[in-house]
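Look over this today:
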Amino acid sequence: MPTAASRQPPTVEIVTVDSEQVGQRLDNFLIKHMKGVPKTRLYRALRGGEVRVNGARKKVWYALCHGDRVRLPPLRRASPAAEPRVDASLLEKIPVLFEDAHLLVVDKPAGLAAHGGTGLKYGLIEALRTLRPPAAYLELAHRLDRETSGCLMLAKSRAALLGLQVQFGAPHDLQKGYVALLKGAWQGGAREITIPLAKPKAGNAGNGAARVRQARSIFSPISSVGVGECAFMAIELLTGRMHQARAHAAAIGQPIAGDWRYGDRQFNQLTKQVGLTRLFLHAERLRFRHPINGACTETYAPLPDTLAAVLDNLRAQKLVG
């Protein structure tokens, strides 16, 4: 039964931006501080002027400054969810590839989402916050699809996060290397794919509104494929769009094995017969400048045994070189 406190209507809050929040987008700030309010409602509040910064309206992408006073409107929130119960053994399945005072890079297993969401009690970020020693700060620096394994970077300080965000927007500063199994034999050598990709606009989920963004990937053959039905490829993402590797592979007619969204059903059945039970996409390598000391840093996540076994089975059947 609701308590008297829980029945009281929400009130306006004024939050002052501190040093750890400087540079954060206004919409992301709201999502974090107004948990339980649907995102569509938050964006409507932003557009309608219910949210104010220093008494003025701001766009969703406004970068917060130290000392800004943000007005949080009196919006009703869902009851706060209980802290997720995470099995401690999960840590053994998330190898640490690199860690210092500012950064953490882990080898994310396939099947574990980067963060919680619809239908998920928790993702990797919530699990790490729960299972690792208490820390003042831990945020995802980028994302991987739930079914993609490999290098995933997290920031342990606000300064590191801001530095990494700059790098993820500058291809010459950061290299993201993946490996994937594609349908069909690859013709020729490395090829750059520059097909633009569409992404739904923030705050407009479900209304079909989308924006087209530039996307660049380089596909390079690893296996020497002659006569065959599969190609083992290296993929370097020069931009970071949602599902970029998967969408680009499908766009050139050679979708990634095990891809239920963009893939080929018949090809997926073929690879399932040789043991593939997941998306064959692995974030093998991250090369970046350390956001604090500027050192060139590289992390490597070995190909999971389950994917290596699929390649062995395909080679045994002479389906891949």
Q: What stands out?
A: The domain at 88-316 is CATH 3.30.2350.10 (Pseudouridine synthase). Residues 1-6, 202-208 have pLDDT under 50 and may be disordered. The chain has two domains: 10-72, 88-316.
